[in-house]
Amino acid sequence: MKIIFFYISLFTFITSAQAQETKTFKVIDSIQKNGLANSQDSLLFADAHYKIGEGYRYSILADSAYYHYHKAEQIYRKFNNKLKIAKTLYGIAVIQKDEKDFTGSEVTSVEAISLLNQLEKTNEVDKYKSFLFNNLGLVFDQLELYDESISYHKKALAIKRKLKGNTKATIDNSKNNLALSYKNSQQYKLALDFYGQILKNKNLVNERPDFYALVLDNYAHTLYLTQNEEQLPDLYLKALRICDSLNNSAASYNSIVINQHLAEYYHDKNVTDSALHYAYRAKDISEQYHNDDLLKSLLLLSKVEEGNTAAKYLKDYISLSDSLQKAERTIRNKFARIKYETNQIEQENIRIARERLWLLIISIILIVTSFLIYLVVTQRNKNKELKFIQQQQETNEEIYNLMLSQQDNIEEARTLEKKRVSQELHDGVLGRLFGTRLSLDSLNMGTSVEAINTRSQYINELKTIEEDIRKVSHELNTDFVSGSGFMDIIKTLIETQTKAYGFNYELNNKDVDWEEASNKTKIHIYRIIQESLQNIYKHANATLVKISFEVKNNVFCLTINDNGSGFDVNKAKKGIGLKNINSRVEEIKGELTIKSELNKGTTIKIKVKTD
């Protein structure tokens, strides 16, 4: 019964459009025969073609609709009636979108919007602008360019909210389209929010039951995609009951998707009988339209069915897909022939193409030129930066070499002084003590027991003194441990700066062999400590600084800790002090860690491989 009703409705639509077409051609012939074809008459012709195109569009007769829209467009362009041109282009854009000529639909929509932007703002101008943005949103949704789709749907919705009159229905349409784009882009939370806004209207089920069922199904399917299935399949079934209760083609068409969703749901739950029931029902209804919905139904059956039956439906799916693609190409070819049937339009298109080509060439030249300028400027800055870093490294090396040279001079002087003292002890005091011991040995010839004991005690004491002096002499003549010079430099730096800055320090060097470290590493360690102490003095208000050196698993570790006021690490990273420290750590291929809490102090840890 519903199928019969659908065909009756479609026949009524087509008959109405054909009657309007016949009537229009009679009027045109009458006017032309009587010589009344002035500008006003021409606009009447255009309006008649436009109305016929509208009728065929709603009757789903794309090629006939396109023909009459194009006829209307040609006449409107002669009189530069931009509003009516834009309205006609909107009808063409919708047809192109429905026939999957998405590029053509996009170009046509943009052209129509450009014409509307040249007109004074009126309610009708804004209304068609919102329709065109909505069409672009649907086009980009089909192309799976969801960010662009969402952007255009938002523009359409914003305009519709400002329109005068009763715009509730058209606003809901835009919300549904926007929610669909969010759903397709997997932004399910936003999709559910917009579907919820629409469904809040309790009267919607009475005012627009077919639309209510469509939104309810979309809402339910979004819940299914988010695996929130508490209300499923009840919402699907409710939407389907509403569609079944309505005797119109729109509700019948909407029920296809609902049946597909139910089949998908039950197939997922392994309820095979129910899945097959709704899958076949979707196929039976979609066969009336022979479009993508039938394609989806066949693919669904190939998944739900088994064995040869599944293979048959998959084969039917492939065959239908090829057939639809050929039909779409045929329609697009018809559009092309209609569009370019006059020389005037061809020349206009050539002119536009040339202008766009020149614009493209100029744009490319400007982009390439800008890019080359950017490269030159960037390279110069990099060269300056590298030169500065090289100079800085040379300066650091020179400073460190001077420091080492000064330390060597100090060490040499200390060594000479130790040798001098050693020689004095050995050649002077020790010689005299040795002579005294010999003298006492010679006097030891006395025969009395007391004399012998006394002399023996003095001799033993002198031997003890001799050994002590020999030991001191030997120690004085021994060099410092290798590498201790760098720690002396560090200690001098820390003592000098902490005294000047007015806080205490603790220095701990856990058996670090500085001979293994390169001069470059030592320079940067020296500078990092210097920079850190300066930062602590400027910002931390600390009273104690702890600095420690240690080696763990061939990794050298420097830790600097203060008990100051602390800071926000993320914000402070922009400071020049921390940038300098970070730059130096990168120079020696180290790892920098900074931890800080307000009123709890700051800890800087630097790790560098020793090999």
From TrEMBL:
<keyword id="KW-0808">Transferase</keyword>
<keyword id="KW-0472">Membrane</keyword>
<feature type="signal peptide">
    <location>
        <begin position="1"/>
        <end position="19"/>
    </location>
</feature>
<dbReference type="Pfam" id="PF02518">
    <property type="entry name" value="HATPase_c"/>
</dbReference>
<dbReference type="GO" id="GO:0000160">
    <property type="term" value="P:phosphorelay signal transduction system"/>
</dbReference>
<keyword id="KW-0902">Two-component regulatory system</keyword>
<dbReference type="InterPro" id="IPR019734">
    <property type="entry name" value="TPR_rpt"/>
</dbReference>
<keyword id="KW-1133">Transmembrane helix</keyword>
<dbReference type="InterPro" id="IPR005467">
    <property type="entry name" value="His_kinase_dom"/>
</dbReference>
<dbReference type="InterPro" id="IPR036890">
    <property type="entry name" value="HATPase_C_sf"/>
</dbReference>
<dbReference type="InterPro" id="IPR050482">
    <property type="entry name" value="Sensor_HK_TwoCompSys"/>
</dbReference>
<keyword id="KW-0812">Transmembrane</keyword>
<keyword id="KW-0732">Signal</keyword>
<dbReference type="InterPro" id="IPR011990">
    <property type="entry name" value="TPR-like_helical_dom_sf"/>
</dbReference>
<feature type="domain" description="Histidine kinase">
    <location>
        <begin position="525"/>
        <end position="611"/>
    </location>
</feature>
<feature type="transmembrane region" description="Helical">
    <location>
        <begin position="357"/>
        <end position="377"/>
    </location>
</feature>
<keyword id="KW-0418">Kinase</keyword>
<dbReference type="InterPro" id="IPR003594">
    <property type="entry name" value="HATPase_dom"/>
</dbReference>
<dbReference type="Pfam" id="PF13424">
    <property type="entry name" value="TPR_12"/>
</dbReference>
<dbReference type="GO" id="GO:0016301">
    <property type="term" value="F:kinase activity"/>
</dbReference>
<protein>
    <submittedName>
        <fullName>Tetratricopeptide repeat protein</fullName>
    </submittedName>
</protein>
